[in-house]
Specification:
Radius of gyration: 23 Å
Distance between the termini: 66 Å
Number of helices: 13
Strand content: 5-15%
Structural class: alpha/beta
Largest sheet: 5 strands, mixed
Amino acid sequence: MKRNDSETSKADIKSAVSRSSARAESVRLSRKFLASAPLDGLSASQLEQVELLRKAVEADIKDSAPLQHFVSTTCLVRYLRARSWKIKDATKMLQATIEWRKQYKPEEIGWDDIKSEAATGKQYLLPDPNNGGHATDRAGRPVLIMRPRCENTRDYETQMKYVVYHLETSSWLADKSATSDARMCWIVDFVGYSYATSPPLKQAITFLHIMQNHYPERLGVAIAYRAPRIFSFMWRGLQPVMDPVTRSKVVFIEGKEDTLAKQLSKLIDTALLDTTISGTTNYVFDVKEYEQIRRESDAIRQREFGVIGTAMEAGR
């Protein structure tokens, strides 16, 4: 029997509502899955620790959208793992980070705040020449290239802000990766390293403190490429303040020229790397291209964190 226009309209509306409800349910289930994914494999006792830590910092983050975004379930698990699931130690550590983030506001750091540091390519997130996105190592982690020889400033405060900017961005990218373990990969290219371009030990210790205490469980591997003998003095100076777990993640790539690429290839596809670090691409860092990538990325990241009125968004 043919339906009249009124009956057809009602049927169409009912069908549309049904489809809308199905989509909403799909989104709800997806969010539920994403929220529970960090909890996979945890014991009943560990799940209880996660909830205890969540409650312990509720009052510290209640008035801050960026902090509420930061203290995700994944974040809670990372801090507990960093302190061997000891709730008291994890709470102290996370509260210290919350206080640091309130003061330092790393989520607000945008390109305009650090562009003077970026000119020479002394530090940048490795692009993927195949898809225009960010390259990853064998474990799916975003790759941060560091080249001490390209140091171009002596403004240690802004230098540290540039490091934090990349720690923040790398962490955000790692969380978005479907294949990574929410960690990052560093490649420190020591070719041309000298005392003149080496950071002061005090600054290196400050960086290590920030990374270990405010970005725990974020480092997947740190590749030291052709570290010279003079770096050993810096390395020895860092040992007393370096966590044993962090130390275990440092891999030295050294030896004869024809073995370097083979060593690297175990950790990253050398087709992603330029020829100066035993890769096969002819990539040359271009600050203008990098600026465009970072500005687009910053806009998305800062919106997700609920940052309003930053220098970037104000178009300064």
